[in-house]
Design a protein that fits this description.
The protein is an alpha/beta fold. Helix content is about 40%, strand content about 10%.
């Protein structure tokens, strides 16, 4: 874990992403506290690379409206585009299906705030119940819900993902692949069955690229992560690539992106938004 046990800043991000075509980014929470989110929002105010922040709130708390309003009061540009809880690390596998969590996530829908699902297969049943219970809230399935790629395990992840994809208020972030594979011995072919399942279930208009950097450094460099995504998505049309690399994320998080000139050979990639 030593490779990620250090400080990273936006200058590091710009250095590693240089030459990949990724121009903008969403900065996503890593800690279960409001202090980090406040720091991220302050950084987003002054750094044009950051198009939005996915922050943390106590989703099982009493008044999440107050928590959202507090963040917005600290950020004139209203750059809080979503929130998430690190459900994958909570001992209660049914956490996301708690009545108070469901009530609060329903409130997020009324506030036009996206909820990112940071889950693994053990939390997916509860996540499905949550998504069904909050039809007005948009959900992003982070890291394709972290299947056991290293062990080539498909079920029950596959069945759960097909169910999530059948619910119209979900999109899938294709990220975190290398960290679920064998860190030192992965091949692009290892990811193909999982990518294909997501592609066939969600479709490009409901898929978005994510780098998972710097956590991805456990298994790959930033450029390697982009290369994996390029290779897996090479079967897509120009319109579908535009969804995958930028438009799905922009639509989901409510971000405006410039139009892409027709002479671009990689439509979505050239104007892509990276989502660490």
């Amino acid at each position: 874990m030593g490779v990620v046990k250090e400080n990273f800043d936006m200058s590091d991000y710009r250095k590693v992403s240089k030459g990949t075509g990724i121009k903008k980014s969403i900065l996503c929470q890593t800690s279960r506290n409001t202090f980090e989110t406040e720091q991220f929002l302050a950084l987003a105010e002054v750094d044009p690379t950051i198009e939005g922040v996915i922050g943390w709130i106590d989703i099982d708390g009493v008044d999440i409206s107050y928590q959202i309003e507090k963040y917005e009061s600290l950020n004139a540009k209203k750059l809080l585009v979503g929130v998430r809880e690190m459900a994958q690390d909570i001992l209660d596998k049914g956490f996301l299906a708690r009545p108070n969590v469901i009530k609060n996530v329903q409130t997020l829908g009324s506030l036009n705030c996206v909820y990112d699902l940071l889950i693994k297969p053990p939390q997916m049943e509860a996540a499905i119940k949550l998504v069904r219970s909050a039809p007005e809230t948009m959900f992003v399935v982070d890291h394709i819900a972290k299947p056991e790629i290293a062990n080539k395990v498909m079920e029950p992840w596959k069945s759960y993902m097909e169910t999530l994809a059948s619910l119209p208020n979900t999109v899938c972030k294709v990220s975190g692949l290398v960290t679920e594979a064998s860190w030192d011995h992965w091949r692009v072919e290892d990811f193909e069955p999982y990518f294909d399942l997501v592609l066939n279930s969600f479709g490009p208009p409901r898929m978005m690229f994510g780098s998972d950097w710097p956590v991805a450094l456990l298994g790959a460099t930033y450029k390697e992560v982009v290369h994996v995504a390029e290779t897996l998505s090479s079967c897509l049309s120009k319109t579908e690539l535009n969804h995958f690399w930028s438009q799905t994320a922009a639509n989901t998080y409510g971000i405006e992106i410039p139009s892409v000139s027709k002479d671009k050979t990689k439509v979505g990639y050239e104007m892509g938004l990276g989502w660490p």
